[in-house]
Every structure is written in structure tokens, then in C-alpha cells.
Amino acid sequence: MTKLTLAKVGVRYDRQVQPAVVDASIAVASGEFVVLTGRSGCGKTTLLNVAAGLVAPTFGSASVDGRPIDGPGADRAVVFQNDALFPWLSARENVGFAQKMRCVEERERHQKSDELLRQVKLEGYGGKAIWELSGGMRQRVGLARALAAEPDFLLMDEPLGALDALTRERMQTLLLDIWSVRSTGVLMVTHGIEEALFLGTRIVVMAPGPGRVVRQIDAGFGRRYAGGEPARSIKADPDFVAARAELADAIFDGEFA
Ligand SMILES: Nc1ncnc2c1ncn2[C@@H]1O[C@H](COP(=O)(O)OP(=O)(O)OP(=O)(O)O)[C@@H](O)[C@H]1O
Ligand SMILES: [Mg+2]
Hints:
This protein is of the alpha/beta class and 257 residues long. Helix content is 38%, strand content 23%. It has 10 helices and 10 strands. It has helices at 44-52, 91-95, 97-101, 106-119, 135-148, 165-180, 193-199, 221-226, 231-236, 238-252, and strands at residues 3-11, 21-29, 33-38, 59-64, 67-68, 76-79, 153-157, 185-189, 202-207, 212-218. The strands form 2 sheets. A 6-stranded mixed sheet has the order 6-7-8-3-9-10, with helices on both faces. Strands 2-1-4-5 form a 4-stranded antiparallel sheet, with helices on one face. Helix 4 (106-119) packs across helix 5 and helix 7 packs across helix 10. The longest helix has 16 residues, at 165-180. It is globular, with a radius of gyration of 18 Å. The structure holds adenosine-5'-triphosphate (ATP) and magnesium ion (MG). Magnesium ion binds next to helix 1.
């Protein structure tokens, strides 16, 4: 088992008066699905970027199994909100890009890419150009590309934020399908209260001014889905409805009282 740990992390960007994040402690172990949520500007992206090695903590530490994170690494794959695919490459070539850089032979690379495209429900789309794909399809190519590295941790910043409501729901179950058959640890940022609760094994609630962690809530709805219960029945469960109200309270904490 591998563990990514942010311990008492504080981040102050250059010329910032108030730190973006103070004293944030979050751990993600293999097989966990940790969701970061909270109001705009509370430091979610900042913390995700610390985990990715794109932002260095000003205070505290970030590590994987005790080894300090000092930059991006193949053990941690990032999926950004806007898919950031290479528009001049096909879907298959996007998925296999990192392997191409590592000189993996073309046939093997394409085989693996096609298998990953199948897992994200894009079988037969390998040869398509990126501009021929819908937004939801592009996000799935981005996900397949991240998975191609076989990362220990999948770090996602609002990966479903740009999608319409129906596609978003389907992508949520796809994420659980993919996560549940792997031991990958997930750290994902979302603004969606229902999404956070449905996906997360733990939900980390942050608040702004300065950005900090205010609650960590354990949840088991995603595991229930992985165990075979339909998404619709989980989301209609009174336990889910009550937990959603509790989470909304934690996020807005009196703001709309
Ligand atoms: N590169 C940067 N330089 C200076 N300040 C920054 C930088 N990136 C973010 N900030 C500031 O840090 C704070 C936290 O920003 P961050 O992007 O982490 O929030 P967020 O929770 O992801 O917000 P959102 O939900 O809107 O995406 C904000 O006050 C923001 O203005
Ligand atoms: Mg953000």
C-alpha cells in the first residue's frame, strides 16, 4: 500500500498577503477516493497542485511513503479540468503519448491504448482526431491517458466540471468503475455536493479566508455502487439525502442561513 501525505501544508504565493492555504493535513492511501470540496478560492487547486508537485508547500510537507514530493512524478497522474489533450494527435496517440516518450514499441503501445480506450467506453475511437470528439469523450481520453502511466495516485481537478448534467452522471459511475478495479488512490476536486458524496470514501471540506480544512467526512456510497447497487437507488436513499444536507451545511456554514 502506498500513501500520499500532506502534513500541515501551508502555501503563500509570491506577493500574496494572506496565504492561499494554512495548516492542511490530508492523506490518500491506495484504494481510497478522497474528494476535496469547498467554496471558490478556498485552496482546493492549490492543494491538488502540491500533491502533483507543481506547487511547493511554503510550510509543512508533502510526501509519498515518506519520500518528499519535489516535482511531478510518474507515480502521480494529473487530469485537469480542461482536458489538455494534444489536438494534433489522435485519441490513441494521446493515450499512448507518455509511452512513446519512453520508446515503447508502436504495436504494444497501440494495444495498450486501445485497451484503455475500451475501459473508458471509447472502443473504436482510437483513430479519431480530438476535434471529432465531444467534451465528455475528450475527458475520457484524458482519463485514459492518465491511467496509461499506471499511477499510484490519480489527481483530478474538477474533471467533470465542464460537462452537461447527464454526461456528468455517467462519468461519475465510470470513474467508480475504473477506480474500483484498481488499487489507485484518487484525490479529486469538485464543486458538486452530490458528486463529492457519491464518489468519495472521504470528503475533505475546505473554507476560504485563509484556505483551510474544516471537516473530513467518511462516506461509503461509492463503495456501495462498486458493490453492485444502482446509482439511482443510492442517491435516493434517505441516508444519502441526509448526508448531502450535512455536507452542504459544512460547506456553506451559516453563509445562506
Ligand atoms: N498562482 C497564483 N498566484 C497567486 N495567488 C494564487 C495563485 N493561484 C491561486 N492563488 C490564490 O490562492 C487562493 C486559492 O486559490 P485556488 O485556485 O487554490 O482555489 P480553489 O479552491 O481551487 O478555487 P476554485 O474553486 O475557484 O477553483 C485564491 O485566493 C487565489 O487567488
Ligand atoms: Mg480550483
